[in-house]
Amino acid sequence: MGGRQQAYLEAMENLRSVARPAIGDGSRATVDRAVGLLAGRTRCRLAEAHRHLMHMAADQNRDVADVAAGVIGMLDIPEPADDRGPPLRSTLLAPRQSPTGVRPVEPWPAVVQAVLDLLPGQSALLTPVRDPSGELVDLVYAAVTPEATTPDGRHGRQLVGARLAEQFPHAPSSERWAAYRRVLDTGEPVQLGPFTVEGHRFTVRAHRLGSGLFMTWVRHGAGPDEGDRIAGTEQLGNLGWGEWDLVSGEVRWSAQLYRIYERDPARGPLSTEETEALAVAEDAPLRLAAAEAFERGERVDVTLRVRIKGRIKHLRTVADATRDGAGRPLRVYGIVQDVTARENGARRLAEVEQQLAEHRRSLHAEHELAARLQHIILPIPERPVELPGIKVAVRYLPAGQESLVGGDWYHAAALRDGSVLLAIGDVAGHGTLAATTMAQLRYSLRALAVTTTDPAELLGHLNRITCDLDEERPETAATAIVARYEPALRRLTWAQAGHPPPLLSRGGRTQPLPRPGGPMLGVVEDARYECAELRLAIGDLLLLYTDGLVEHRCRSLDEGLDAVIRTVDEAVAAAPLQPLAELVSRLRQANPDDDTCILAVRPTTGETQDLRRYLRSR
Asked: Where is the signal peptide (predicted)?
């Protein structure tokens, strides 16, 4: 038994290595999880689920790990219960959590029985029965293989619950009983026999399995005959055979065919009228095509539906005939296989694939809407923009995944008093909601700038707006920096709400500015914000940005910030006279899963000219 189990495990591992492409451990875990979910939800075999996942990836020309992630995202939710009870995979593969969060424990014999159902030979798990002193007094069949038989005529699951001492009354007093007790006590396996019981010779092997006794036995001189082998094969393949002698009219069915049609063998095979009554009307064209092919002398291989006791079964029929010299059939013979589980699994896989396609279309439509909204609300200038006393360059780096349109935004505009209002912000989340929230904050800032130009007061107003939005859409939050630049004094007054600090490049050295106090927008209703002042000099460069530029799950914030500082220093050194374009072309987002907005500011004088405009005027 141990050699057969080892061979089975090695074969399964070889199958896995052949069937799966060379992918990393993380991607393999994602694919395995998706295969398990597919098999569980569609109640198909793992191999079929894995094969279908590969077909989906090939059809969509996508990486299998990406397809698997989409499957997990849609299916990794509790499956609604139905009146059919939990499928077998809930016992063996993925038991669901109970409402209290405690994983239910499946009965150990049920797990063993599910395994033994797939094994040939005669084996059984027996649980010990002990008296109050702990002495072994009996053994009870808890799980058996389909081929297991005993001298009293019982076989397979008919043995479950039977007591060994009842079948073999002299066993408790034999040396074998002492050997069984040693196996249970020490865990050392034993082989007994050949020995004779009631005229039959047996060889038994016993191993301890859990708290029970796992036994395999061979009955010498009583190997299965050809009929037993055929019956075992029929059960294994869930198929039955039938013959129809057209000369004598005699019809013969195998026992498994009666089980497939759930018919009492005492009633004999179904008549033609009874067979037609079970057929599903929608399959009439298939039945007609099969009949025409049979009349042409072809072998028929067709899968049709039948309605048996109110349930639909899918039955595959392969039929041929012995014919006379003129081609007329004399005897029809064939096999019928119940492929209901396979067909239902294929249907459920198709439904899952359709749901995934609809999910992708929905995500794509949302992305398109959010992207158009973002483009309308947040136009990005291709070249640096000149404002009173400063020149501003903007760059927007979208997320790597099309479904992750974010809420990053900026604002740069001259005010009526000759100063300049600058702002940058980041709304939490992605998609249409984030884009619409971004629009509300940006347009609110423009409107509020008519009433006040104080950055701290503006952030206070934006905070109250965000808190109001949070009541409509919970978990709405944002970060922002608002600044006012006065060209005559080259003075920058700024306030921040939980936003990463600006970077100031001066004299070839870049460093973050100390942040004034202020919480995120939408967190504290009556939050107060402080202002800080900075005098900009000609040659300075100020960089405002959102967190996608520095944050990444694989490195710390300090490492991300250091990388940006090095890029700023390199850009200024490469183009000291016009560093803005050089800088925005060099900056790259640190987090491909998040949008990034960059606002680079450089003070100018009245004598500063744009060289490209000057050349065009010539």
From this structure: none
